[in-house]
Amino acid sequence: MSDKLNVNVIDHPLIQHKLTMMRQKDTGTKDFRELLEEIAMLMTYEITRDFPLKDIEIETPVSKCTAKVLAGKKVGVVPILRAGLGMLNGVVNMIPAARVGHVGMYRDPKTLKPVEYYCKLPGDVEERTLIVVDPMLATGGSASAALTLLKEKGATSLTLMCLVAAPEGIKVINEDHPDVPVYVAAVDEKLNEKGYIVPGLGDAGDRIFGTL
Ligand code: PRP
Ligand code: URA
Known about the structure:
Layout lengths: L7 E2 L3 H11 L5 H19 L5 E7 L4 E7 L3 E8 L3 H10 L4 E2 L1 E6 L6 E7 L7 E6 L2 E2 L3 H12 L4 E9 L1 H10 L5 E6 L2 E2 L5 E2 L5 H6 L3
Parallel strand pairs: 1-11, 4-5, 4-6, 4-8, 8-10, 9-10, 10-11
Antiparallel strand pairs: 2-3, 6-7, 12-13
Helix pairs in contact: 1-2, 2-3
């Protein structure tokens, strides 16, 4: 496998500006949460850019015409609990018909290994394109374990959407799940000795839920 990371960085100016606000340590819970939801909305706009369309016949108040609607697989959104919940509404605001699954995964603070504690998915998971959301891709352990679990449950079409990633985490996803496209707003420098992304934004779950 090459050293080149396979990642789509969505570096839209609005996203970068909002992310900078989120990174600042004095940004409080309310603003942090709102900014994350807004970024998730903007990222959804980008990652759905290639969704297939089909023609249908409609009638406007003025005339009949042929117009486009979404075709292809139905969508599911899967936040990785708990911090992934912070991105859920942003995605669902853009794709209101999406079904929502939940995967509970926390990172053991000593080993940094993911621990699964919850999984509830739509029944027709194999028929959907699943957008897996988690703001932080650090070692990649949590996201990789969530993707493996979803595949075991029958998922065949998966996309991973994170806010900030460390190169180490992207590499793990590329190696473990080469079939899964990875979208991020930023690739940061590295992980520190505690497995935190540098410069990152700290503990995303704690900042979203005010549990610092
Ligand atoms: C955070 C984050 C990811 C994980 C990333 O969750 O939301 O799920 O860490 O780290 P990794 O790539 O090294 O696995 P955390 O374990 O803090 O749980 P929380 O979402 O409940 O706060
Ligand atoms: N989880 C977070 O919330 N932040 C990090 O920097 C790494 C893992």
